Amino acid sequence: MKTSIFLSMLFMLCSNLLMGNGYKNSGWHIYTESKENYNGVTLANGRIGIVTDQKIFNTKEIVINGVYDKEFEGGVSQMLQGIIFTNLELHIDGEKVTNENISNWSQDLNMKEASITTSFSFKNKANINYTILAMRNLPYAAMVILNVEPLKDIKLEVFNHMGIPEELKEAKTNFNILKDGEIEMPIFQTTAKSRFKKHELAASNVFLFDDEKPEYKVYNMSGNRPMIGFSKILKKQNKFRCALVGAECTSGDFNDPKSESERFAIYALRQNIDDLLNQHKKLWAKIWENDIIIEGDMESQRDVRMALYSLFSFSRKNTRLSISPMGLSSHKGYNGHIFWDSEIWMYPPLLAFDQDIAKTLLDYRFDRLEKAKEKAANYGFKGAMFPWESDDTGEEATPTWALTGTFEQHITADVGIAFWNYFLTTGDKTWLKLTGFPVLKEVADFWISRVRENEDGTFSIINVVGADEFAPNVDDNAFTNGSVKVVLKYATKAAQELEIVPNEQWMKVSDNIKFHYFANGVMKEHANYKGEIIKQADVNLLTYPLAITTKEDLVRKELNYYEPKISKECPAMAHAVLSVINARLGYAKEAFRLFKQGYVPNRRPPFGVLSESANSNNPYFATGAGGMLQAVLFGFGGLRITENGIVQENPCLPKEWKKLTIKGIGINNEIFVVE
């Protein structure tokens, strides 16, 4: 027995050492053997997100994209936490396998294949690993692939139960064997209702096997939890593999979520494990034709890939959904609402790489245009007034105590800017006519009714919250006025592209909107700004992305003035924009410092998921990933969104990098290289 234990431990140690050394040199894998300060990573496919846990076979939560119920009575909407259908439980020779009786635990995040594999040894009896993936080929489904290598003859029992979050109500679990002629389809299913019964949820599970299917049994375990399972005698070194496939549907997406979840499960049941897995891998291989390759700095390579992986995971084309600040890593993070984070921070990298995904973020806004027009009218304005926090309804979803919901109105300009940049990138004039211009027109009309004309012929926007939320209810906020100046110009250009006569007021306001300055020429953040600490970049956004402030000496002055003013509690993207600006000025050293400062303090172990700020712990902050990627693409990479599409101008490579390759840019999937 001692010899067997020793050999097992030696085998696992050697495997882990080899795996760890290989992964340390790979830009595709993040490998850990530590559970200390564990922050889970999300496996997602644009529809569902599965958040990992360090406890074996446990899922922290499943997040359902774009479907909401109230967070509490009297509260605002919150994205749904789903039924947790990915729970396995193993017994070997009658003993439950737990964190307390295993050894050699490790996890490997494979970003290339969008999966995570957990490996461990159970005493001297078996080496076990399981892989979780949110299936790209089945957007409402996930798969857990279990591998068991017996080190001696063992009795293996495998169970699955449904986890029911406390917020879900009226949960019912059942096991049915459906039949079509001689074909039997065993389905384990749980149905429930959301917290205030706005939505119905249904999750269905099936097991897949490589060879002969064992007989299912239904068990009532501790806590009266129904479980299904099977048992199998495994001979020494006779490896065993099976897979659990689950699908979760809600009434937010389907009229009959119960039946639809069963259909997905049945579809999977009539496939084999490798076919389903290979379909998933093939789709991710297609996604990764869009990539950023950094040579000479493996840390930056992994961090950038993690950011790309996260944005690709949290989105998919043709869903007409956008991305919340926390993506699909949490249903509670900002309640899953949609902010300016989508259009200003996450959208530009997606637009550069995948115009189909970028378009679906815009579809989300277009579908809610009528609600935005209603909001504008309700506040006495013309055009469309988009909510600061948006959910499935398109109405304002910000908690009423937050001034941002009423006064952070630059979101309406941000939406219009994103629409124009899609046209610049694609040149799709039909889209501009049917979708882009209708939004830009309503956005422009809103701002014409919102501004106030001064005696000197300039225009002011009073009583707003700007990008710097530390300064509420100010007049002539720099970023708000700057974004309005730009979007009114874009609306005019869009009209001209379509040979429509633009409203002459659009350019009159754009040309005469008011900004305030210190004596040395530095722009004030707002009319009464006196040098206070700020939450994040505001004035500097007029250099990038708005391209209003362009004279190098002034750009440099404003960088030097405002960087020290940024709070230590700033969100991750604050320094990213400063990095872009420095790179465009050719200051590679400063740009790289700010690039790292923008996210390294926010990384959380063991996978480097990003928190919103250096002092918070709410990963994954997808907005920060968007800022980080903009620093690489539009800073170091020199990319520009222009009337000629996406072009490269004056790239700037930090000395820490030997070469930067950006693949799959724009409608022609161009490759840009900096070395």
From TrEMBL:
Domain Glycoside hydrolase family 65 central catalytic positions: 305-529
Transmembrane stretches, start-end: none
SUPFAM superfamilies: Six-hairpin glycosidases
Superkingdom field: Bacteria
Keyword Signal: yes
GO biological process per UniProt: carbohydrate metabolic process
Signal peptide extent: 1-20
One Gene Ontology molecular-function label: hydrolase activity, hydrolyzing O-glycosyl compounds
Entry-linked InterPro entries: 6-hairpin_glycosidase_sf, 6hp_glycosidase-like_sf, GH65_N, Glyco_hydro_65_M, Glyco_hydro_65_N
Keywords assigned by UniProt, alphabetized: Hydrolase, Signal
Positions of the Glycoside hydrolase family 65 N-terminal domain: 41-197
Pfam families given in the database record: Glyco_hydro_65m, Glyco_hydro_65N
Matching PANTHER family: GLYCOSYL HYDROLASE-RELATED, PROTEIN-GLUCOSYLGALACTOSYLHYDROXYLYSINE GLUCOSIDASE
Protein name from the UniProt record: Glycoside hydrolase family 65 protein
Organism, scientific name: Ancylomarina longa
